[in-house]
């Protein structure tokens, strides 16, 4: 991170929402823009569960949480669409 690409230094921006059990992050650039962590089983955030079938409903629920927060606050940061 912080290394120039084609003469420009990438400056990612993102948002995060946390529920009691899960942490969801989304970024505006990168190959894997989303991250989902099980904060009870993995408090060190070592395993991104966003791409697993078993967490699809949890991922969508946290996308919805972040979209709702954006609506309430006027934040237009792009959150990935519905599954």
Descriptive overview:
There is one protein chain. This protein is an alpha+beta fold. It is 22% helix and 19% strand. The chain has one helix at 56-73, and strands spanning 14-18, 22-27, 34-38. The protein has a three-stranded antiparallel β-sheet with strand order 1-2-3, with helices on one face. Strand 2 and strand 3 form a beta hairpin. It is globular.
Structural features:
single chain, 83 residues, alpha+beta, 1 helix, globular
Biggest sheet architecture = 3 strands, antiparallel
Query: What is the radius of gyration computed over CA atoms, rounded to a whole number of angstroms?
Result: 14 Å
Give average pLDDT, whole number.
90
Order of helices and strands: EEEH
Low-confidence residue ranges = none
Secondary structure: number of strands: 3
Structural class: alpha+beta
Number of helical runs?
A: 1
Order of neighbouring strands in the sheet with most strands: 1-2-3
* Percent strand: 15-25%
Shape: globular
Helix content: 10-25%
What is the CA-CA span between the terminal residues?
Answer: 29 Å
For this structure, the quaternary state is single chain
SSE layout and pairing:
Blueprint: E1 14-18, E2 22-27, E3 34-38, H1 56-73
Antiparallel strand pairs: 1-2, 2-3
Task: Quickly describe the structure.
This protein is 22% helix and 19% strand. With 83 residues, the chain is an alpha+beta fold.
């Amino acid at each position: 991170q912080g290394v120039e690409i084609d003469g420009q230094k990438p400056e990612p921006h993102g948002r995060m929402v946390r529920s009691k059990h899960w942490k969801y992050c989304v970024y505006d650039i990168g190959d894997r823009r989303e991250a989902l962590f099980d904060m009870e089983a993995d408090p060190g955030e070592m395993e991104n569960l966003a791409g697993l079938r078993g967490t699809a409903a949890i991922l969508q629920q946290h996308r919805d949480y972040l979209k709702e927060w954006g609506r309430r606050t006027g934040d237009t940061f792009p959150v990935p669409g519905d599954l």
